[in-house]
Each structure stands twice: as C-alpha cells, then as structure tokens.
Amino acid sequence: MKGLLGMAAVLAFAAACWTGAFHLTTWAFDWIAADPAPLTRQLATAFTGLLLMMFPPMVVGVVHRPREIARWTAALNAIRRIGKGDFGVRIDLGGARNRHHPFVGLADGINDMAAELGRLEQMRQAFISDVSHELQSPLTSIGGFAKAVRDDELSPDDRRRYLDIIALESDRLSRLSDDLLRLTALEAEGPELRREPFRLDAQLQRVILAAEPQWVAKGLDVEAQLEPNFLVADEALLERVWTNLVHNAVKFTPAGGRVLVRSWTRDGEAVVEIVDTGIGIALEDQPRVFERFFKADPSRNRDAGGSGLGLALAEKVVSLHGGRIGVRSAPGEGATFTVTLASAQSV
Fold it and tell me: Where does the HAMP domain lie (predicted)?
C-alpha cells in the first residue's frame, strides 16, 4: 500500500511540474512575443519540466548535505576508534529516528558492536586478572618455601613439610593450567564431541572408586545408587564432569560425613545427582558457582587446592551436550548437584 501511495505521489508531482512548465513556457513566449515551432515549444516545456522536477531535490540536498556528511564522518570516526580499542564510543543519532534511513541502521549496528566488544573486553580483563591472582598464590608459596629450605639450620621435619607444600602447590599450578587449556578448547567455536554409546552407571562407578583414597582418608560414607543405563555422549568429557563433582563433594564434606551418587533414567533423559553433607553454599552464591574462578569462600577453596574452574568446566561440557546442571544447597545442610542429559536408555 505504501509503495502504491509513493508511486502515485511521484506521478502527481511529475504531472504538476509538467503542467507548471507548460504554463511557464507559454507565458515566457507570450512575454517575448515569440511564436516558436511546435517542436521548439515542446522541447522548451520538457526542459523546463525537468528543471522544475530537479529543483526540490537539489534544494533538499544542499540543505541536508552537511548534516549527512557529518553523520557518515561520525560513523567512520567511530569505526576507527573501535579499531584502536576504544569500545566506549557511541554514535549520536541526533534525533534521526527514521528507521528507514540507512544511517540509522548503520549507527545502531556500530553502537551494538561497540557495546558487545566492550563487554567482551571487560570479560577478558577480568579473566586475566583472575588468572594472574590464581597463579600468584601458588607461585608465592613455592618461592617462599623454596627460600626457606635453603636454611642449613632447618630441621628435617620442617624441610620435608616445606617440600610437601612446594609439591602440592606445583600440582595445583598443573591442574590450573590443564583446566584452563580444557576450558579454552571447549569454548572454541565448534568443538567436536565424540558421541558414542557407553554405560553411564559403569563410568560413575569408576569415578567413585578413583576417589576412594580421598574419601577413605576422611572416613566418609560414600554410597552409589546407580540404575544401569546407556548414554550416547562424549565419554571422556563427561568423566571429567563426574570427577569434578565427586571430588568437590568429598573435598567439602567434613570427616565422618556422607556422599551419595545416584543416577536413573526419566523420559529418555539420564539424571545424575551428587549429594553431600558438607558445609553447603549460600543462596546468593548459588547462581555464580559455575562462573570461572568464583569461590564462595576463597580461603576454604584455596586450602582445598581447587583451581576455581572445575564447575565452569562441568557446566560447559553439560551445555555442549544439550543438558542441564543445577545446584540445591543451604549453609550447613550440604549440596546437591543435578545433571540431566538426553539420549539415555535403560539397560
């Protein structure tokens, strides 16, 4: 409908210009007392009509050209500033909110791009800050205790204890590096999952047995309620998920506590729960537990030797499989982590 109205307006404007041109040339020839040939009169009318049609656009162009040049110059300057790393740039539309104007769409696109790049830059800086902080702590410990063991008067027991701390912090650095590499690889565009059928219950049982030295040393009661089922997924990546969750449950459950690992199939989905009777997680911290380096209690996590990346890795692996991971907890009442994955089948 708008197209038809626009075409009708153009035709009406052209007819008005040609009518005006006819009367204008007739008046001009009468004024100079000339009687040109019909062809000359028609050519004069046509030329005058063209001038009349071109005059309004020319006037509009002269009036609006400086404004248009200013707008496009602002867009080019904004792109140059973004290219130099200034993501706080924003193009002022100056009241031009005609959504059909090409500049409005370009300006909105540049503003959105700058805002998104600014958000990514903040994430990058925060990530670098977090990594630097996580590296600094074990490096400081290693450096301090390495200097201490040089003391010839140090007792053999203290020397062994210091060397154990150095070895522990070195292992922590190694885990941090490994987790960072894994998380970076998973977040790369288009990670390839090796989906194959395997026994989920058998995998969970292997993970629990692999953590046996830790939970036996703490005197924990570890129970497994595993329904036999098959799952089509990347077996190696999911084993890392269960390893992180089980180790966290063991790590944050005090001596004599209980850890329960159970799995079952529901409506074609595999559900895995890791339940512990540990210290729990505050309600306000639960939405952030899957963020990189987030620690509800930094001192507690540092003492436990965590990298701060285990749950972020778990969340990434589960999401790549199209699944869901969540937590229910309360301080002093333990925590329950639940993972739901599709493509499951009972045995």
Answer: 77-122
Q: How many CB atoms lie within 10 A of CB 25?
A: 21
CATH number at residue 159: 1.10.287.130
In 3D, which of 67, 86, 98, 179 has the Cα closest to residue 131?
179
Q: What is the rounded CA–CA span in Å between residue 317 and residue 315?
A: 6
Is there a single domain that holds both residue 144 and residue 214?
no
Confirm whether 105 is domain-assigned. no
pTM of the model: 0.57
Boundary (domain end) residue, out of 168, 187, 206: 187
Domain count, the chain: 3
Q: Residues 90-112, buried b or exposed e (16+ Cβ, 10 A)? A: ebebeeeeeeeeebbebbeebbe
Residue 123 lies in a domain: no
Looking at the domain assignment, is residue 145 inside a domain? yes
Domain assignment of residue 247, given as a range? 195-346
Query: Which residues, other chains included, contact 219 with Cβ-Cβ below 8 Å and sequence gap of 6+?
Result: 255, 256
Residue 288 falls inside a structural domain: yes
Q: Which pLDDT tens digits describe the chain residue by residue (347 residues)?
A: 666 776 777 677 777 776 777 777 777 767 777 777 777 777 777 777 777 777 777 766 666 667 777 777 877 888 888 888 888 888 776 655 555 666 777 778 888 888 888 887 776 776 676 667 667 767 887 888 888 888 888 888 888 888 888 887 787 777 777 777 777 777 665 567 788 899 999 999 999 988 888 888 899 999 999 999 889 888 888 988 998 899 889 988 999 999 999 999 988 889 999 999 988 888 888 888 888 767 665 544 444 455 567 888 889 889 888 899 999 998 888 999 999 998 756 55
State whether 144 and 213 are in the same domain: no
22 shares its domain with 68: yes
Instruction: Please report, for the domain that includes residue 205, its CATH number.
Output: 3.30.565.10
CA distances from 36 to 25, 32, 42 (A): 11, 11, 10
Q: Is 126 within 8 Å of 119 (Cβ atoms)?
A: no
